[in-house]
Amino acid sequence: MTDIKNKIEMGMKLKALHDEFCPDFEPDWENNSTSKYYIYLNNITNKYAVGFVYDFCYASSVWFPDMRTAYKVCNILNGKTRRGTK
């Protein structure tokens, strides 16, 4: 049950950070030429990292408009940056 709780809490953190940095952003899945960025946990390094796709959606992902914003969120999650520094 703890694993499920942790996943829910992380999803809520990601959504809150999305709303803080890019509240109006929704990916345009009709446009296959623009990148869509998401955050994932690298199980080898145990750090959050940035991934991107062009034309498909992971069902439970929170999306960010650009790599810069996605890396800001990763740095916050990895403890390298404090919240509130846009």
Overview of the molecule:
There is one protein chain. With 86 residues, the protein is an alpha+beta fold. It has one domain. The chain has helices at residues 2-21, 67-77, and strands spanning 36-42, 47-53, 63-64. A three-stranded antiparallel beta sheet has the order 2-1-3, with helices on one face. The chain starts with a helix and ends in a 9-residue tail after the last helix. The mean pLDDT is 85.
What's a quick, concise take on this entry?
The protein is α+β, with helices and mostly antiparallel strands. It has 2 helices and 3 strands; from the N terminus they run H-E-E-E-H.
Task: Record keyword descriptors for this entry.
36% helix; 86 residues; three-stranded antiparallel beta sheet; alpha+beta; globular; 19% strand; 3 strands
Structural class, judged by helices and strands?
Answer: alpha+beta
**Mass-distribution shape:** globular
Strand content: 15-25%
**What integer value in Å does the Rg equal?**
13 Å
Number of helices: 2
